[in-house]
Amino acid sequence: MRLHDLSPNPGATKSKKRIGRGLGSGKGRTAGRGQKGQKSRSGDRNLPAFFEGGQTPFLMRIPKRGFKNPTSKEYEIVNIKVLEERFEANQEVTPEILKERGIIHCTYAVKILGDGELTKPLKVKAHKFSKSAQEKIESAGGTVEIIE
Fold first, then answer.
1. Can you tell me the mean pLDDT for 26-38?
2. Is the model's pLDDT at 121 over the cut of 90?
3. Model pLDDT, residue 43
4. For residue 20, what are the contacts with CB-CB under 8 A and spacing of at least 6?
């Protein structure tokens, strides 16, 4: 066997489509591009998928409501009842520990809210606390530390 004897299996390759080679070929005259219009012409046809031929684009036609305040800060919220269930007495609670245990998703801003009851003293560190949460943690004998 020599290099010139090698060939692909029968049916593994298809011959190239020869467009624009006469009417009898089936791909003559318009070369498979249809009739008139931008897509029938030669040149740059790389238009974005959302382009509508100059018509006002769909995203500009639909109504828009409300706004997103770019300066507002969004907090990951944790309620006191979750701390009561998941932590032992005198344990330290930080955003990193909360993330490890799957209670929150990201640690950049965490706020503790006062929903539920707390009976164990905990050392809680977070970026923000509601008044009720702070009172409940301190009344249970725990400490509150605000992270900057």
1. 87
2. yes
3. 79
4. 27, 28, 29, 31
**Tokens representing 3?**
């290099």
Calpha distance 134→9 (Å, rounded): 76
Q: H or E segment at 58?
A: helix 58-61
pTM of the model: 0.57
What pLDDT is attached to residue 49? 85
CB atoms near residue 142 (< 10 Å): 20
CATH of 76-146, one of 3.100.10.10, 3.40.1190.10, 3.40.120.10, 3.30.565.10: 3.100.10.10
Token duo for residue 140 = 């249970």
Residue with tokens 């900057």: 148
Amino acid in the structure at residue 131: K
What are the residue ranges of helices labelled H in 69-144?
80-86, 95-100, 131-139
Identity (one letter) of the amino acid at 102?
G
The sign of the CA dihedral 27, 31, 33, 34 is negative
pLDDT value, residue 95: 95
Beta bridge partners of 110: 76
| Percent above pLDDT 90 for the chain | 70
Q: Quick one: pLDDT band at residue 132, thresholds 50, 70, 90?
A: very high
